[in-house]
Amino acid sequence: MSIGIEHFLTVGAILFAIGLMVALSKRNAVGVLMGVELMLNAVNLTLLAFSRFSVSERPITGQTFVVFVLTVAAAEAAVALALAVSVYRNRETVDVDQINLLKS
Amino acid sequence: MEGFGVTVAFWILAAFTLVAAAGVMVARNLLHAVLFLVLTFLGIAGFFVLLSAEFLAMAQVIIYVGAIAVLILFAILLTPRSGRQNSETRFALPATLLAICLAAVFIFVIFDADWSEVEEDPSLAASELGEALVSTWVVPFEIASVLLTAALVGAIMLVRSPEEEAEDALA
Asked: Which residues, listed in sequence order, are joined to residue B29 by a DSSP beta bridge?
């Protein structure tokens, strides 16, 4: 049996769903960040699958997009982890349920 | 993609990646979750090789496994008193249901759609990616570098301790 675009897209979709589940349900802020990274990876996989299989004039565009997603993911990880460390310094916790200063 | 090797490689990689991703969800210790995340990243890099994007597979290993995973480990180790529990909030059940519904919709659409596929590999070299980045996509490329610099400077500013800020105010 041959492997087509559907197979790669299915793996990407399941991976995205797992990432969404992790990001929405984890208590630790670092855990939430791990979910976001999983979702970004799923999107990268999908983009590369389209780059490989789609009928296109310039199939390199998909790979270019993945480079930008990698860059933004690195920036996002650095800022998010700095935020987690900063919140920990002030509140001694990174539990997303306890970071509720704005709640009256 | 035809061929026995490709098929076997795909199914092994798919099982490996999805089991590792599920491990991120079910691991009780946050450090174990990070290790499962590293395995997921490696599996994705394998998929990139399978999709003949060797350069991006290398970039994936270097950036995600080498940099981001270490960054996440540092963040966990820098927040010691918050506990290493990887437990869920009360949104665990709704989040699971939402994820299952989303995956079901995605998979239905993926198998319902009539994809126009090219069978032969476009065989894109890394040099083509480099040329595209500095010709067609040069403006987004420069903006990405500015974003990365700004984000790293911002991250350094965010994690400075109050004593360091007081020293800077005196200088």
From this structure: B85
**Tens digit of each residue's pLDDT (9 = 90 or more) over A10-28:** 999 999 999 999 999 988 8
Q: pTM of this prediction?
A: 0.91
Chain B CB within 8 Å of residue A91 CB: no
Q: What architecture does CATH give domain B1-87?
A: Up-down Bundle (1.20)
A17 touches chain B (CB under 8 A): yes
Q: What is the pLDDT of residues B119-142, one digit of tens each?
A: 777 777 888 888 989 999 999 999
**Considering only CB atoms, which chain A residues are within 8 Å of B86?**
26-28, 31
Which among B21, B39, B28, B37 has a CA at the least distance from the CA of B84? B28
Nearest chain B CA: its distance from A99 CA (Å)? 12
Which domains, from first to last, does chain A contain?
Answer: 5-91 (1.10.287.3510)
Give the Cα separation of A21 and A1 in Å (integer): 31
Instruction: Give the closest of B17, B51, B76 to A15, CB-based.
Output: B17
